[in-house]
Amino acid sequence: MRESILTIPINEIFEPKCGCPICMMRDTLESHTTEYIMGAAMMEPDVRIDTNRLGFCHTHYQQLLKQKNRLSLALMLQTRLETVKKEVFSKKSFLEPKAKKLKALAGHNSTCFVCSKVDWAMERLMVTVFDMYENSEDFRRLFAEQEYICMPHCEMLTELAKTKLSKKYASDFIDTCTDLAGKQIAMLYDDVSHFCSMFDYRNNSPDADWGNSRDSIERAIKFLTSRE
Fold this sequence. Notes:
mainly alpha; 2 domains; 72% helix
């Protein structure tokens, strides 16, 4: 399969064979989106209308905080709070039917500007991933050589494979995904178990061998949740 403007970004994500490639794909999209929002785009009317309307989830608020541009974030929070106050908590809103008011409240609690952009891009990238898997032997081999697939993305990929791949490749793809996740969880179990064993009094010595267990808690959480 010849490389194109669609396949090159996918190959760049999968070729390092480091961690879960779908996590890397999502993280890259989130990074680009948060940097974009906190830059000049913050003052673009269309962007501000969307951020005022959608807000951000907790995960993406934390990522915006890490951009270290507190004034930009405060300005977005100011107009976001104004929007929610007007649509849900103003005196006028309390005169509206209770069901409508509660629906507005629920809507503001379930939207995120970054999630919407990342989900949109991920959906299109997944189309390319499955197209490459079906049409490129090299990519099928590259996919099978990944370090692991995290548990949430293993579920996502195996569900998508049922409708995005032909029967000829769907079963093989699902087996590969579950094998990559299964090998990782077996290794993590050993590492976390070893970490726990190091607190046994029999291993209480300065030269005790911790092996690869010191960061096993963080690695296990990332595998189970797709987040560090």
